[in-house]
Amino acid sequence: MPQIAPKQSPEDAAHLAAMTDDRLMLLFRSDNSGAFSELFRRYNNPVYNFFRRRLENPSRAEELTQETFIAVLRGVERYEPRASFRTYLYGIAMRMVMAERRKSARRESSTIVEPNRSSNPSVDAAIWVRRAMEQLDAEHRDILLLREYEQLTYDEIAELLSLPLNTVRSRLFRARTALKALLLPLRPEMRNET
Predict the structure, then answer these.
(1) For 119-147, what is each residue's pLDDT tens digit?
(2) For 8-111, which CATH class?
(3) Which of 31, 39, 52, 183 to pair with 144, CA 20 to 30 A apart?
(4) 161: part of which helix (H) or strand (E)?
(5) What CA–CA distance (Å, rounded) separates 179 from 96?
(6) Is the pLDDT of residue 49 over 90?
(7) DSSP letter string, 45-80
(8) 8-111 with 120-184: one CATH topology?
């Protein structure tokens, strides 16, 4: 991976590592490239995983991760610490996912590739969960991924999606209920026979 900042002393790196994200972003805005390097170090893998959970293509997830950080670089002068940096960063990433979904919907082909059958139960379980997540509608899937995988707080999700807090709570409840229904096999004693 390319080096973003010149080599720092261990003391400088430790000092930056102890700073909050918002402080680092403000420091970067005043031309401290080491601050951006620290933000990149903290968020490169989480942002990549954010895209990876939403996209099939790992190389496209890598590209969008890089584009997200380029957007942060370009928008540094406009950054205002009204929300947390993490909310700001995931907001950029969310807009990129939405744009990617629009593009792929336009060029979507009718061919469906079935994954190879695995003898590994954990891989099978992961595929099962992924397929269940894909069956959720987009608003429920996104809100569930933000909470459970990205570990955003309810307040951060509300800010990111421009929703009232109680709407976030109710959508999460409905998303979890729908996912549970997709994951649990319907047992005879659970059926409502009328």
Answers:
(1) 566 666 777 777 888 888 888 888 988 99
(2) mainly alpha
(3) 39
(4) helix 154-161
(5) 25
(6) yes
(7) HHHHHHHHHH-S-HHHHHHHHHHHHHHHHHTGGG--
(8) no
